[in-house]
Design brief:
Blueprint: H1 4-7, H2 13-17, H3 23-48, H4 51-54, H5 58-73, H6 83-97, E1 101-102, E2 117-118, H7 122-147, H8 153-176, H9 181-196, H10 201-225, E3 228-229, E4 234-242, E5 245-252, E6 255-260, H11 263-269, H12 275-278, E7 288-291, H13 297-304, E8 310-314, H14 317-326, E9 337-341, H15 344-350, E10 355-361, H16 384-392, E11 394-405, H17 409-423, E12 428-433, E13 438-444, H18 483-504, H19 514-538, H20 542-565, H21 571-587, H22 590-594, H23 598-625, H24 630-647, H25 651-654, H26 659-672, H27 676-680
Parallel strand pairs: 7-8, 7-10, 8-9, 10-11
Antiparallel strand pairs: 1-2, 3-4, 4-5, 5-6, 11-13, 12-13
Helix pairs in contact: 3-5, 3-7, 3-8, 3-9, 5-7, 5-18, 5-24, 6-7, 6-10, 8-20, 9-10, 11-13, 16-17, 19-20, 19-23, 19-24, 19-26, 20-23, 21-23, 21-26
C-alpha cells in the first residue's frame, strides 16, 4: 500500500511546471483534447484512406498505444511534447498528397479492400497511419499524465474523465453541425497553443508552424473538395448529364456510392430496379418501405410504379439532403413520401406499419461502426432475425425484395437461404449480371405472393449458413479470423512491445501492475460488447454510438465518485459483483430485449450493460488509488486496452455474446494477479 506522502500532491507542484493554467483545468483541457483528437483522426483518416473504411480499427489501436506510451513517458523527460503537432502536420500532408481512392470504372462492391484502388498500397499506408496516430496521441497523453502526480489518484482520474466527456460532447456537437475538418484542425491548433505555449520565440515558431500547416491543408481540402461532412462520411458529388439524361454521381470517402437519375432512365439502364415489382404476384403498392433510400432514385421508381405511400429510411442525413435538393425527379418533395433518418433495422423493430412491399435498396454502408472493428452500419440488416422482422411487417399478399452487387456467388446463395429460413419457402433469385453478381432476391409472404421467373437451385454444400445477430458478418464466409488480420494484429503487437521498451524502459516497471493491464484488456472487450449490443437494440446511428460512449464514461465517473466518497466493499467482493454482472449480461439475450417496448428496453439494457462496467471501474478505482506509481499504472491499463482491441477480433469466430466469457476469464486472471496487500485492503 502507498503512504500518504505518495498519494498526496505536493503544495507547489503546479508552480514547479510553470504552466499558466493550474493543474485541474489543465488536466480537463488536455484530456478533452486527447479524446477529441482521437475521434477526429478516426473520422478524417477513414474519409481519405479507403482501407480504413473496411479493414480494421488501426487508428483506435494506434491511439491506445500512443496514450499508454504518453503516460509511461512521464517522469522520464522534462521536454514538452512538440513532436505531436509536427507529426500531425506530416500525417495530414501525407494523406492529402497521397490519397487512396477507388476507380469508378471498377465493377462491383468493395469490401475487405479486395478491389484495386489508386494511391499507396495498404501494406505501406496502414503502418504509417498506425505509427503516426500513436505518436500524435502520445503528446496530449503525456500532458495529461504530468497532471496526475500533482493530484490525488482518484481526483486526477475524475478530472480526466470530465475532460473526456467534454471532448466527446464537442466532437458530437460538431458532427451534428456537419462541421468540416478545418474546424477540427482549428480546435487542435488552439488546444496545442493553450497546452504547449512556450516562452522562447523560436519554440513558438516550432509550435505555430505545424499548426498552421494542419489548418491550411484542411482548409484547402475543404474548399477544393466541395465535400459535405455527414456524421459518417466525406460526401462529394458531381452533377452532369449522360446522353442528355441529368444525373448526380455521389462518392463517399472516395468510393463511388450512388447515382441519382430519373426513374425512367434507371429502369431502362438496369433491370434489377424493375424486378421487385414484377416478382410481386399481387402488384398492390398501397404502402411501400424502402430501406437505404439514399438520394432518392429507388423512391422515385416506387412512385413511378404507382406507390400510394412510401416510407423512405436513410441513415445518413446528408445523402437525404442531396436527394432532396438535386435529384432530377424531386421524389422527396412528393406528399406521398415520408422520410425517416434512422437505421433500417431499428426502424423495423420500432414501426407498427405494414407494407405491400419492403425493399432493401443497395444498403451497403461502406464504413464501420466507430468503436467496433468488424461491425458495419448495415450488418444487422442482413441477419436471419432482420429478415424475420421484415416478414412480420408485410401485409397479406405482400413481398420482400433486396438487390445489390454481391461479387460472389456464395454470397447470393447465403442471402437467399437466409430469406428462405425466415419466410419458410424458396425465394425468387434473379442474377441480372454475372459480372459482379448483380442479383435480386424476392420473397412473398406466402409462395402464392411471389411470381418467379425461374426456380432458385437452392443453397449448395459450399454455402455458409445465414448470419445471425450474434455474428452479423455477412461477408465472412468461414468461421475464422482472416489470415491478413492475424498477420496485421501480430505485427501491431510486436511494434507495440518494441515501442514500450524504447519509450518507457524495462518492462519491470509495469510488472507490479499486471492486473491493471488485464483490467484494460477485459474492459475494452466489455465496451465493445456494449457498443455492438446497443447498436442492435437502438440502431447503428452515430447518435446511439455517441450516447453509448458517453454513457460508458459516465458509468466510469460514477464508479470513481462512489469510490472517493463512500466506503465500498473490498476488491474480492467487487470482483464477485463484476462477475455476477457479466453472468447477468450473458443470461439476458438480445432477442428478449428486442421484444420489449422501447422505453422498457432502454431501462433494462442500460442496467444489464452498465452494471458490470460500473463494477469493473470500482475495481479499477480502488486498485489505482493504492498504486505506488499512478502514471505507470494508468499507462499499463491503457496498453491493456490496446491488446483488448486486438482480442475483439475473436468475435469473428465466437460471436459478440461470447466476448463476455472472454472478458470474464481475463478478469479472473486480473484477480489472480492482484497483490496481496491490495486484496487484503
Amino acid at each position: 500500500m502507498t503512504t500518504a506522502a505518495e498519494t498526496t500532491p505536493t503544495p507547489h507542484s503546479a508552480s514547479r511546471h510553470g504552466h499558466w493554467l493550474s493543474t485541474r483545468p489543465r488536466l480537463v483541457v488536455a484530456s478533452g483534447f486527447m479524446l477529441f483528437l482521437e475521434l477526429a483522426l478516426i473520422r478524417w483518416t477513414g474519409s481519405n484512406i479507403v482501407h480504413l473504411s473496411y479493414f480494421t480499427n488501426f487508428v483506435l489501436l494506434g491511439s491506445f498505444l500512443g496514450i499508454g506510451l504518453g503516460f509511461l513517458r512521464v517522469g522520464r523527460t522534462t521536454r514538452q511534447p512538440y513532436y505531436s503537432p509536427i507529426v500531425l502536420a506530416a500525417l495530414v500532408l501525407v494523406v492529402l498528397l497521397f490519397p487512396v481512392t477507388v476507380d469508378r470504372q471498377t465493377e462491383g462492391v468493395l469490401y475487405w479492400t479486395s478491389l484495386s484502388a489508386s494511391g499507396p498500397p495498404p501494406w505501406l499506408i496502414l503502418p504509417v497511419i498506425f505509427v503516426a496516430a500513436a505518436v500524435v496521441l502520445m503528446g496530449p497523453a503525456e500532458l495529461v499524465g504530468r497532471c496526475f502526480p500533482e493530484l490525488d489518484r482518484l481526483e486526477a482520474y475524475r478530472y480526466d474523465l470530465i475532460g473526456s466527456l467534454t471532448g466527446i460532447a464537442l466532437f458530437t456537437a460538431l458532427s451534428f453541425l456537419s462541421a468540416p475538418p478545418v474546424v477540427w484542425g482549428g480546435i487542435a491548433a488552439l488546444a496545442y497553443a493553450v497546452l504547449l505555449w512556450p516562452r522562447r520565440p523560436w519554440a513558438r515558431v516550432a509550435l505555430l508552424l505545424p499548426s498552421l500547416v494542419v489548418v491550411g491543408a484542411l482548409a484547402v481540402e475543404t474548399l477544393t473538395a466541395g465535400a459535405l461532412w455527414s456524421p459518417y462520411y466525406k460526401v462529394t458529388y458531381v452533377r452532369g448529364h449522360w446522353n442528355d439524361v441529368p444525373l448526380m454521381n455521389i462518392d463517399v470517402n472516395g468510393i463511388p456510392h450512388q447515382q441519382a437519375t430519373p426513374a425512367r432512365s434507371r429502369l431502362e439502364w438496369e433491370r434489377q430496379y424493375a424486378l421487385p415489382y414484377e416478382r410481386s404476384a399481387t402488384g398492390r403498392l398501397d404502402d411501400v418501405l424502402i430501406v437505404g433510400a439514399g438520394s432518392g432514385t429507388d423512391v422515385s421508381i416506387a412512385l413511378s410504379k404507382g406507390a400510394r405511400h412510401v416510407d423512405a429510411v436513410e441513415i445518413d442525413p446528408k445523402l437525404l439532403e442531396l436527394g432532396r435538393r438535386h435529384h432530377p425527379d424531386r421524389p422527396y418533395d412528393d406528399p406521398r413520401v415520408t422520410t425517416h433518418v434512422t437505421d433500417g433495422r431499428a426502424f423495423l423493430e420500432r414501426t407498427s406499419g405494414r407494407y405491400d412491399l419492403i425493399l432493401f435498396a443497395l444498403p451497403d454502408s461502406l464504413t464501420l461502426v466507430s468503436g467496433a472493428s468488424s461491425l458495419r452500419l448495415e450488418s444487422y440488416l442482413f441477419t436471419s432475425q432482420a429478415m424475420e422482422a421484415a416478414r412480420e411487417h408485410l401485409k397479406p399478399g405482400g413481398s420482400f425484395s433486396m438487390y445489390n452487387y454481391y461479387r460472389e456467388g456464395w454470397l447470393v446463395d447465403r442471402l437467399a437461404s437466409t430469406v428462405q429460413s425466415a419466410f419458410g419457402h424458396r425465394p425468387c433469385v434473379d442474377i441480372v449480371s454475372e459480372t459482379g453478381q448483380q442479383a435480386v432476391i424476392t420473397a412473398g409472404l406466402t409462395p402464392d405472393a411471389q411470381r418467379c421467373g425461374g426456380e432458385w437451385a437452392g443453397a449448395t454444400a459450399d454455402t455458409p449458413p445465414p448470419a445471425g445477430d450474434d455474428r452479423p458478418f455477412l461477408y465472412l464466409k468461414d468461421r475464422t479470423i482472416p489470415q491478413i488480420y492475424l498477420l496485421t494484429l501480430g505485427l501491431i503487437l510486436i511494434v507495440s512491445m518494441l515501442a514500450v521498451r524504447a519509450v518507457a524502459g524495462p518492462y519491470a516497471r509495469m510488472r507490479p501492475y499486471a492486473d491493471l493491464f488485464l483490467l484494460g484488456v477485459a474492459f475494452l472487450l466489455l465496451e465493445t460488447k456494449s457498443v455492438t449490443g446497443f447498436a442492435l437494440l437502438f440502431g447503428t446511428t452515430w447518435v446511439v454510438n455517441a450516447i453509448v460512449f458517453a454513457g460508458v464514461l459516465v458509468a466510469v465517473l460514477a464508479a470513481v465518485e462512489v469510490t472517493r466518497r463512500f466506503r465500498v466493499p473490498s476488491l474480492p467482493v467487487m470482483y464477485g459483483v463484476l462477475l455476477a454482472g457479466l453472468l447477468l449480461a450473458w443470461l439476458v439475450p438480445n432477442s428478449w430485449l428486442l421484444g420489449l417496448p422501447l422505453p422498457v428496453r432502454a431501462v433494462v439494457a442500460v442496467v444489464v450493460a452498465f452494471l458490470p462496467i460500473f463494477a469493473a471501474n470500482v475495481v479499477f478505482a480502488k486498485r489505482f488509488a493504492g498504486s505506488a506509481d499512478g502514471t505507470v499504472a494508468f499507462g499499463a491499463n491503457l496498453l491493456g486496452a490496446m491488446v483488448g482491441g486486438c482480442l475483439e477480433y475473436l468475435a469473428l469466430v465466437v460471436g459478440y455474446q461470447a466476448l463476455l466469457v472472454v472478458a470474464g476469464v481475463v478478469y479472473l486472471g486480473a484477480f489472480a494477479l492482484l497483490p496481496r496487500t491490495a486484496r487484503a485492503g
